[in-house]
Specification:
It is built from 12 helices and 25 strands. The chain has about 550 residues and is α/β, with parallel strands linked by helices. The C terminus is likely disordered. α7 crosses α8.
């Protein structure tokens, strides 16, 4: 993965200055440190692109390191999914990822060192009591009655904590800093808690686990991270990270904070996304409506499109919100260059060409991708009976309607010019079930030798050759721009969009799609971009609509 250097940003400027000054001997080492308590979402794609991109640009390395310090919420499934997502986005972390649990012994030994220095103590206050004594923004916290235990007593109790002598929550190890600090993170934060839970990697070896704020900086130090890039919510934690490494006298990474990604109509909380999965409100973590990287991959988003989106967002010191249409713009832009064009009819209406010979089949040459001449062409069968979209015919056309209607001539893409001559209806409902047309034989390939102008070109599929498919059409998963905010008196799930998914079971596609494989991407001409779903098979084709050909609902311009 490379980083776009078309425009600089303050993080890149810091790295350039560090290299020029010889800091860290010009070395660049970053890391991406997810907690394996859920699937990665599009917000993580920004961090992945930034961390791996900067490392690649400056000839450095980026570690994938799992923050696996909370065994109650972590699963191997999440680890596997994160590895797949990072690799799919182009993150090169070498042969294998790293884990905070790789360093549990070292982190424990450093905690013992702080106890010996009188900088940490075992506290018997409950979690509720710790919170109650932290103070307020205008009032200092209250020192724990256990704060001044002797070094010997603290060492004994901490070892007994490790040996499993105490129940969950009975004791913690806290740093001894300053209960009057204006920064709450410096008011004797908890470093270890007792948790008798099986860890996905270390099993039952440990029954005490380091808190993130304690483990984070030490893991960065062990790995000699030069630029520890994280989002703005950790800015107030930086003095604590600095304090720990300074007290220990170990390698001091530089933490740099940037704005996190927020998207309209999109939820970025793993806890709330897990709620959707657990309550069956979505199919799974990789439901194509989910903002997870795996869901977006399944829907048909390309890795390059996501990277381009992330790169063009830039980084700043101010959190904001980005329109969903901006993400869709970059996905659409990439797919326009790479996706093969095909013809498919989602809601078919039969057309009979009454002056076309029965049993005759012609093969029309169709362009695979006008943006890529090297993609070549394909042959599409044309016959007497075709399918067109129901919306491409109106018996009584409204003003400004230029598609097919009685007496109206249109161009069939790559085919002929046709004119509607008759309409067949269901006698019971009056619904149009079939239309009859005639072709102009002189217009094969859609040409007009006499130069006459036709205002509309529509797509079609040969009825005799069409393959049937299920097609899923998606809208936003939520109806409001800020879905994480629950309506008054309700819960966030009240914001779910009941029309986020429409399933069409009788779509008709050109025959070449019978061999399409999961995750193959196509542009259905005039309809949008579609991807073969992972559940698709030769006897049951399933396609997901990725994005439309253009945005129809956003409030802002597509380019930002």
């Amino acid at each position: 993965m490379s980083s776009s250097s078309e425009s600089s940003n303050f993080i890149r400027d810091i790295i350039v200055a560090d290299i020029e000054s010889g800091k860290h001997e010009g070395r660049v080492q970053t890391r991406f440190p997810p907690e394996p308590n859920g699937y990665l979402h599009v917000g993580h794609a920004k961090s992945i692109t930034l961390n791996f991109g900067l490392a690649s640009e400056f000839g450095g390395k980026c570690n994938l390191r799992f923050d696996d310090t909370n065994p109650e919420k972590e699963e191997t499934e999440y680890v596997d999914s994160i590895i797949e997502d990072v690799r799919w986005l182009g993150g090169d972390f070498g042969v294998k990822p790293l884990y905070a649990s790789d360093y549990f012994q070292q982190i424990y030994d450093w905690a013992v060192e702080l106890i010996r220095k009188g900088k940490a103590y075992v506290c018997d206050l409950s979690a509720e009591e710790v919170r109650a004594t932290r103070g307020t923004p205008t009032e200092p916290g209250i020192e724990s009655p256990y704060r001044n235990r002797s070094v010997e007593e603290n060492l004994d109790l901490f070892e007994r904590m490790r040996n499993g002598e105490f129940p969950d929550g009975a004791r913690t190890l806290r740093a001894k800093i300053d209960m009057a600090s204006p920064n709450f993170n410096m008011r004797d934060p908890v470093m270890y808690r007792i948790l008798h839970a099986e860890h996905h990697r270390t099993g039952n070896k440990w029954c005490i686990y380091p808190m993130y704020d304690w483990a984070h900086g030490q893991c960065d130090s062990i790995e000699k991270i030069t630029h520890s890039i994280c989002t703005l919510e950790f800015e107030d934690h930086r003095p604590l990270y600095d304090w720990f490494v300074e007290q220990l006298g170990i390698f001091h990474p530089q933490q740099i904070e940037f704005d996190r990604l927020s998207l309209t109509y999109t939820l970025m909380s793993k806890r709330k996304l897990l709620t959707l999965v657990q309550q069956g409100l979505v199919e799974s973590w990789d439901d194509p409506r989910m903002p997870t990287i795996s869901g977006m991959r399944r829907r048909g988003y390309s890795a390059e499109g996501l990277r381009n989106f992330a790169r063009n967002l830039g980084v700043s010191k101010t959190n904001g919100i980005t329109e969903l249409s901006r993400l869709e713009y970059y996905i659409r832009e990439d797919l326009n260059r790479t996706a093969t064009r095909v013809m498919g009819v989602l809601k078919p209406l039969k057309v009979v060409l009454t002056n076309y010979p029965e049993g005759q089949v012609e093969w029309m040459e169709a362009v695979n991708n006008p943006e890529d001449p090297s993609a070549g062409t394909r042959q599409v069968p044309f016959s007497r009976e075709l399918y067109i979209e129901q919306d491409d015919f109106r018996e009584v056309p409204p003003k400004g309607y230029y598609r097919l209607s009685p007496g109206k001539e249109v161009r069939l893409r790559y085919g002929y010019l046709v004119t509607c001559t008759d309409v067949v209806k269901d006698p019971a409902t009056g619904e149009v079930t079939e239309i009859h047309c005639t072709i102009d034989p002189a217009t094969k390939g859609g040409t007009t030798p006499d130069g006459r102008k036709v205002k509309s070109t529509i797509h079609w599929v040969s009825a005799a050759h069409a393959v049937t498919a299920t097609v899923r059409l998606y809208d936003t998963l939520f109806t409001v721009e800020n879905p994480g905010q629950a309506p008054e008196g309700g819960v966030f799930t009240d914001n779910l969009n009941p029309k986020s998914l429409e399933v069409i079971t009788d779509a008709k596609l050109e025959p070449a799609l019978a061999n399409a494989k999961p995750l193959d991407r196509f542009q259905f001409e005039r309809l949008g971009y579609f991807c073969v779903d992972k559940t698709s098979a030769a006897d049951k084709l399933v396609f997901n609509r990725t994005v439309g050909l253009r945005d129809t609902w956003a409030k802002v311009e597509k380019k930002g």
